[in-house]
Design goal:
heterodimer; A: mainly alpha; MetI-like fold; 13 helices; about 0% strand; globular; B: mainly alpha; two-stranded antiparallel ribbon
Chain lengths: ~270, ~325
Amino acid sequence: MNLSRREQLTGRVFLIALIVVTLLPFVSMLSAALQPRGTVPSGLEWPSDPQWGNFADAFTAANMGALLRSSLLIVAGVVPVSVLIATMAGFGLGQLRVPGGRLVFGLFLLGLTLPFEAVVTPLYYQMQDLGLLNTRWAIILPLIGLYMPFAVFWMRAHFTNVPVELSEAARVDGSSTWQLFWRVQVPLARPAIASLTILMFLWTWNQFLLAIVLVDDSTKRTMAGALGAFQGQWGTDLVLLCAGSLLILTPTLIVFLIFQRQFIKALIQGSVKG
Amino acid sequence: MTSALGSAPTGRDDRRARPTPTRAHRSRWARAAGIGWLYVLPALVMYAVFVLRPLVLTLQYSLYDWNGIGVARWVGLDNYLTVFTDSDLLKIIGNAIVLIVFFSFIPVALGLLVASMVRRITTGAFGTVVRTILFLPQVIPLVAAGIAWSWLLSSNGLVNQALRAVGLGGVARAWLGDFDTALPAVGVIGAWVLLGLCTILLVTGMSKIDPALYEAARLDGAGPVREFLAVTLPSLRQEIGVCLTVTIIAALASFDIVYISTSGGPGLQTTVPGLEIYRLAFSQRQVGLASALAVVLMLLVLACVLPIQRLSRGEKP
């Protein structure tokens, strides 16, 4: 593109400024996390004697093992089921085009901009009636429902773009709808399913509101909910708070760096379609 | 029969895309339709039980005075009247609207500025690094952003350290605890979270613009400003619409960041509807009023988002 050299340079400078601003909070937290316990750290100051042991203390204080297990259990409860039933519904609405499908789809769209705050109070009483308060089910079940508008929207968008001839051809070959779904459609939908899986994982792992409302015990919460509890407990011990927060972030960061390309693709597509 | 419809379904006119079935096909379609419903049903049930039912209950609660335990008393629209007349609640709704400036306008404006200068981020290593870093705030929980920035904006934090270093120690303060600066400080946290996303979305949109448009503009003697107004803005309409939609919802429905960084204080300076719903419902046991506020919040989101959708998608088929 024929931008002048000066323009390209200013662009770069802006980008680099943006990167610095994005990274500074993390660096500042790291510098605080490495100060000796009990001192009052200041903004950004590399410690003369970095206390890496703080992370070990934070690991114990935050009960990281239990937190990881809890978050993984919640993700395992939410993500596969959400992705499966959303894919099926997307197939039904987008490929099979069930009669009345447009109405149902409209009903799903209704939930697309719904703030979770709008339903959290009745959900509390609903979970109470079901006897599920303070269990992981209280997070898992509502999240599956709350993800449906976006997930169905997403999968339907994929399936409406798959030529119907494909289904027709499979039918002529005598395969049942179930076979058609699993053998033909699901393999073709793999990229859409992969992106959806990534988004659901991220949103579940980071879900805060439902976790603090529906579950008191922080070892039964999501990572974000546990982090909130950790702040409540260690808010005054800044060194430990920073160490613990960074520690709690680490699993997400590792997963993000490994699947970085897929994540970014999913996030871009996710926001464009949402 | 399928040749007429299948060639290039666009996904938009699926109503018309269905073929006129012959008799033989009709029975097959009917059976498929029945089976098709089985595919839609699980998602629909989960949605109905855990979203639609609570939504209807929120509407119902909003018409009652209820403490969550005892007998509910029908009060009609009184709770809504309270939402729209109580000065505290109006202030709280106002706070959310102020946050839109920080969560939406600043990231979109800065994103546009960067995008129009960068035009495209290379696909090489530099581009990958840039994208990865700018997406970090999207990947971490908002709670973590709240904790990090509470530290940055505290009395000993990086922001004040930087101010003192350049001789502006006089303005240094506990930004989140100060009556005048708390709300903008919370806004800055949101801006930080959303800036990277907006920038990437806008740069991505930018790279799809035909360079010939810019060449034509330059040949016509357009300066950078004219070029921005005549080429960049109209071409990015859809991307800007997406950014505004995502960020405005984030501002109006904000909860995590505020809960962590200020708990709504000092006073009510940073209390937002989401936090107030939580408080009213679970600490003050005013479930009816909390529900009315929830309904108002929901409508507020729709009132902001629907026009944007219409504007940004409307004319493009």
